[in-house]
Amino acid sequence: xxxxxxxxxxxxxxxxxxxxxxxxxxxxxxxxxxxxxxxxxxxxxxxxxxxxxxxxxxxxxxxxxxxxxxxxxxxxxxxxxxxxxxxxxxxxxxxxxxxxxxxxxxxxxxxxxxxxxxxxxxxxxxxxxxxxxxxxxxxxxxxxxxxxxxxxxxxxxxxxxxxxxxxxxxxxxxxxxxxxxxxxxxxxxxx
Length: 191
What we know:
Elements: E1 10-19, E2 22-30, E3 43-48, E4 52-56, E5 61-63, H1 67-84, H2 90-124, E6 127-130, H3 135-139, E7 145-146, E8 154-155, H4 159-163, E9 180-181, E10 187-188
Parallel strand pairs: 3-6
Antiparallel strand pairs: 1-2, 3-4, 4-5, 7-8, 9-10
Helix pairs in contact: 1-2
């Protein structure tokens, strides 16, 4: 058994878990109040994002390391090999283990990056404020709006506007001419 650090305090719960062929023992220990970190006297606001991992109110950007992209070619090859395997075969079991190991590696790299970034912030600032946003809702496509007058057709739902700068307003148009809406929901100039 590999113990990554000594147990401090009295062990309260023991959990045994298995991931693939590996077994893990997770101990929860109760201990006295830990020593507080020295005060720094500084406060910061953080904004978690999609493009960058986080941005502080002081202008510092922590980039998103994109661990999934580094493993993408290996994962693609492993998943293609899995698709070629016959169900129930020993080879398929091995390939399933390889795909799971790659996913496990990416998950652990992401967790490690998040924990190290959080620890750096906790050591550097006394007060950390953040927004409670649902990133999943920010990236979701808008729901389609059915047209009540014509069954089977849909009304414009603003998907083009939400997808990005879908407005192509021409700088040079004739005086008095109004831009007309395009089929994508943006605006185009009349020709």
